[in-house]
Design goal:
Helix content: under 10%
CATH class of the largest domain: Mainly Beta
Strand content: over 45%
Number of strands: 15
Largest sheet: 5 strands, antiparallel
Order of helices and strands: EEEEEEEEHEEEEEEE
Number of helices: 1
Structural class: mainly beta
Strand order of the largest sheet: 4-3-2-1-5
Length: 184
């Protein structure tokens, strides 16, 4: 794997320590070689820092076990998942689940990454359908090309939606960017 392959959520070894990419930006300056500016998280101690890589530099892929699990519920800061093959339940802390909690709904299938017996993180599907719990009502004449308004979804996530979206509607959300895509 090279630094050109780094994307949000990519996991790799850096100096023998597991890391995950939070943000990655590929930069091609007008003068000089290309590089990758990234924000990475150390998966052993949780520290987050900026790291710049030369474009094309090799990094060691992190080979973690990926288990398909179903999200059940959240209680006292723990998120409970069930292995779909063994029906074994696994509680994960909010530090492991991180921003994924904004998109989790009961019975949702996700992949949980595990390295040497300890969970590293949760991979969500690229798109999820969520119900709008609260937003201002749409007004006749609002169009697709109009502005946006804030909407609170069933999970508590607040994002911008077009003016024609009403409370109770299901919308499709891109989990990678946390943005509205379309009506469901």
């Amino acid at each position: 794997m090279t630094t050109n392959d780094l994307r949000k959520g990519s996991r790799f070894n850096l100096d023998g320590v597991p890391h995950m990419v939070i943000e990655a930006q590929h930069v091609k300056p007008g003068k000089g070689p290309a590089f990758v500016r990234s924000k990475v998280k150390n998966l052993t101690n949780g520290s987050i820092y900026d790291k710049t890589f030369r474009a094309g530099e090799k990094v060691q892929s992190l080979f973690s076990e990926s288990i398909e699990m179903e999200y059940l519920y959240e209680s006292d800061g723990l998120f409970y998942f069930m292995d779909v093959s063994t029906y074994e339940q696994l509680p994960l802390s909010s530090e492991v689940v991180e921003d994924s909690s904004d998109f989790l709904t009961p019975n949702m299938r996700v992949k949980v990454h595990i390295l040497e017996g300890s969970p590293l993180g949760v991979d969500l599907p690229n798109f999820v359908e969520l119900q709008v719990a609260e937003t201002e009502p749409g007004v006749k004449g609002d169009t697709v090309t109009g502005g946006t308004k804030p909407a609170t979804l069933e999970t508590g996530l607040v994002l911008q939606v077009p003016l024609f979206i009403n409370q109770g509607e299901k919308i499709r959300v891109d989990t990678r960017e946390g943005k509205y895509v379309e009506r469901a």
